[in-house]
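Hi D.,

Good news: the full-assembly prediction came through. Inputs first.
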Amino acid sequence: MSRTVPSWLADPVAIVIGEGAGLEAVAHELAAAGATIARGPVVASRADAAAAIDAASAAARDPVTLLVHAGSAGDGTRADQLDPRAWRAGLQAGVDSGFFYAAELAQSLIAQGRPGVILFLDLPEEAGGAVQAAASGALSNLTKTLAVEWARDGIRVNTIASRVVAGGTRSQLRSLGALAAYLVSDYAAYITGCVMGVDD
Amino acid sequence: MTNQRADRIIAPPDFDRPFLPEAVFSDDVVLVTGGSSGMGRGMALAFAQGGAKLAILGRDIDKARAVAAEIEAMGERALAIAADVRDAAQVSAAFDAAEDELGPVSILANNAGGNFPALAESLSTNAWNAITQIAIDGTFLCSAEFARRRMAIALPGAIVNNSAQYIRTGFPGDAHSAAAKAAIATLTRALARDWRPGGIRVNCVAAGFFPHAASPNGDDPEMVEKLGRMIPAGRTGRMQEFGWAGAFLCSPFASAITGQVMMIDGGESLRRALLSPDFVPPNQRANIWGYSQ
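Then the structure:
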């Protein structure tokens, strides 16, 4: 069997946010499936997300239509010992930044009359401490909400919540990448608002 | 406030634009229960597209033979088998028959099931038993038979189960299937845990509305179009999308994916508004699955 998925994508520009073994596996597989990959930073505002999307579109000479966001909500520090700044930074990376990018991308796609796909990568709620639990709950229900809000605009929203996002075996990382490539392809055009894992 | 933007409804690729590589299942024998119609047939065709040999299990041998003939027309081997998945002896005999003709079964797709609108207070013992036992007992018996055979020869395997979009909300007017389909999702996770050491992966596709010839209004394009408008995605599901989801989960691309429930419903289960029409209980509705008197 080939090492990567078939050419499931018709060369969309994907903006990929975050870091870690899981995100790199997904970026690798999306590129193999046909996407052009641009990178963006975790942001604290819609304006910063808009700037990152514009920069990615300009660099690729084509509008971004695909967003993959992997925020990290932080470690498993006990809630009573968690610094308030670490709490806020965790939620910002784990939820806020993903929302800002998603809202900016959707608004721009709707204005252009273009379809698009959003994929959030997350850890399971029990994989970290209080920040992770809050961020995962928020992101999961956000996924289901945005999926319905933008369904008629041809914008799908899904989440892969798995420990593999933080790292795993070669086989687990390949499956994560393949699942991501499938979910953002038109072969999965009827999958939206889905929150699932890999082996969790 | 109104927004006049036009709907953008995304269609999937046609079935003849293959999804997985042509030979991805060329070493596999796939047994599909409920394979003689509807969603089971959709899954069987998706596996055949990847080069699998198919055992089509159904209670009606003539219907199973018709699907087997379709698969042979695609250039793959197929065997029709009549069996009732509620009977462990018949299940075992079906695996024997598949193995004798095609080789050891390496992938199992549990699609046998039935459904109809019914008021819970009027549901007979037989009706409850039929729907819940075909889905829950059938999925369990076929899965256990499959896993025992794979582990006996120390080979991995993959199972995909057929669940439904209403497993997290319940489904008033469909008590039998609401119970059965949720059991399949939780059973999926338990079987995945039990058989992880044996290399047997178990996943589940929780499906929304996939009209087919045997489903209510499935053969009426106008009605299907109308049903599509009630779904956020703006359309009902196409059978190849359901088939591909099952095939993906059983493919080598998903070799580390197990214990998962993949929802494929165009957002149908998530549709809600704070304001809704007046609530009418199922036993006062003109149509049990409708919303009005």
